[in-house]
Write a structure and sequence with these properties.
Strand 17 and strand 18 form a beta hairpin. Helices cover 12% and strands 47% of the residues. It is mainly beta. Strands 1, 2, 3, 4, 5, 6, 7, 8, 10, 11, 12, 15 and 16 form a 13-stranded mixed β-sheet that branches. It folds into 2 domains: 2-51, FAH (SH3 type barrels, Roll), CATH 2.30.30; 59-247, Fumarylacetoacetate hydrolase, domain 2 (Alpha-Beta Complex). The chain has helices spanning 31-34, 67-72, 148-153, 192-205; strands at 2-8, 11-18, 23-27, 38-44, 49-51, 59-63, 79-83, 87-88, 94-96, 103-113, 129-139, 158-165, 171-179, 182-190, 213-218, 223-225, 230-235, 240-247. The longest helix has 14 residues, at 192-205. It starts with a strand and ends with a strand.
Amino acid sequence: MKIARLSLEQGPRFAVIEEPAQRYHVIAGDPLYSGIEQTGQIFNSDEVRLVAPMLPRSKVVGSIGSFEENMATPSSAGFYLKPNTAVVGADVPVVLPQWVTQVTSAPNLAVIISRPCRDVPAERAKEVIFGYTLVNAVSAPEFTSHSPAQAFGFDTSCPLGPIIDTNLAAGEYEVISEINDAVTRATISVDFDKVVAYVAKVSEVFSLLPGDVVLLGDAMEPLTISAGDDVVVTIGDMGDLRNPVVAS
């Protein structure tokens, strides 16, 4: 099942995506708390605007390592935090702070946490995963050593979306980062035994709340972005996460 969050007159609403017609069936409440109950409202794709499919209740947990490193040795992973104020949806500009000289972008596959948890055993970590989404992890690398909050947590540094996939299949996925006309490709292998081991490790360090987002690691080397760029991140069939880049 794929879930989106729509901007409607009555405010943001979650919806189940009907494929391949790309129609949106609005559901009552928040699926993390209320389950999936359709209201009967249905919209075509040209009638709605998608916003970030989840606003973390407290935080985004990022990883210092790459996706490949984290899946191979989750016990040695290092972490950083992004506040929920860093999260934006597709088509929202990434605003470059005046105080940076370099900003980078890296595609990430991310986990949405479904319920409060702490010290989750790996064999039960699947129970706390609601679904998966895309994140463009934007950072200012010149600050990583002495001011990581600045490096990773500035406003608009966490584009997220456009949808949540609650039934992502294991296997290999092509990762595409397109910056203007320059296309960079990579491949990641999603093994759920390794994913849950990594989520379990994160839960040893942080208490996780419903809606928190856990990045699984950069899927390729970060690429430098500048004002005027148009950045599109794609992993598999989870849609395009597109964000323009602007100066503050």
